[in-house]
Amino acid sequence: MEWQPAPIIKLYEALGSLADGRLEVSNNTAKVYSSSGNKYYDVVYDPAANAITANDNGSYWVGYLGYPSIALLLDKGVVNYDRDLPEYFKGFAWKDINQKFKNDFGKTQDFIDAQIEEKHGISREKLHATLDDILRELTELKLKKLATTQKPPTAY
């Protein structure tokens, strides 16, 4: 069974986790810490099986490729991206922002886009085109699901 495509906001969060140094990678596994630092998600990637799993909420409950998996794939170079791109997403408190907008990812995205545009001077159109290319490459991987038995962590 393949992963559903990730919402674009999950790529934002993955890039933020790279920028903030919230990954502990060991071979094909990782602990990806939340922006609060109070919890982490476990990710396991099996390149031979073209499969990955993680215990974040989106992956576990909804079935789309969540940000911890995306972060590991980016870190390992499985997906190509501009290595300067994560800097745009550095320092955001994702949980707080998502709660502020009642988990309306569209509103979260608009908020983050405005911050990036103001701070870095990159247009939303250019940013989204770059991110769409990464999402397309992720989708083309046709990653399969590894079995997950571990529920998502509940800390803040």
Compile the SSE list and pairings.
Layout: H1 8-19, E1 23-26, E2 29-33, E3 40-46, E4 51-54, H2 57-62, H3 67-75, H4 94-100, H5 105-120, H6 124-140, E5 144-145
Parallel strand pairs: 4-5
Antiparallel strand pairs: 1-2, 2-3, 3-4
Summary tags:
5-stranded mixed beta sheet, 6 helices, 14% strand
Account of the protein in words:
- The model has no long low-confidence stretch (mean pLDDT 94).
- β3 and β4 (51-54) form a beta hairpin.
- The longest helix is centred in the C-terminal third of the chain and has 17 residues, at 124-140.
- With 156 residues, the protein is of the alpha+beta class.
- Helices cover 43% and strands 14% of the residues.
- The protein has a five-stranded mixed beta sheet, covered by helices on one side.
- The radius of gyration is 15 Å and the shape is globular.
- It is built from six helices and five strands.
Biggest sheet overview: 5 strands, mixed
Output the helix-strand order.
HEEEEHHHHHE
Tally the helices: what do you get?
6
**Uncertain residue segments:** none
Structural class: alpha+beta
- Placed side by side, the strands forming the largest sheet appear as 1-2-3-4-5
Could you write a compact summary of the structure shown?
The chain contains 6 helices and 5 strands; from the N terminus they run αββββαααααβ.
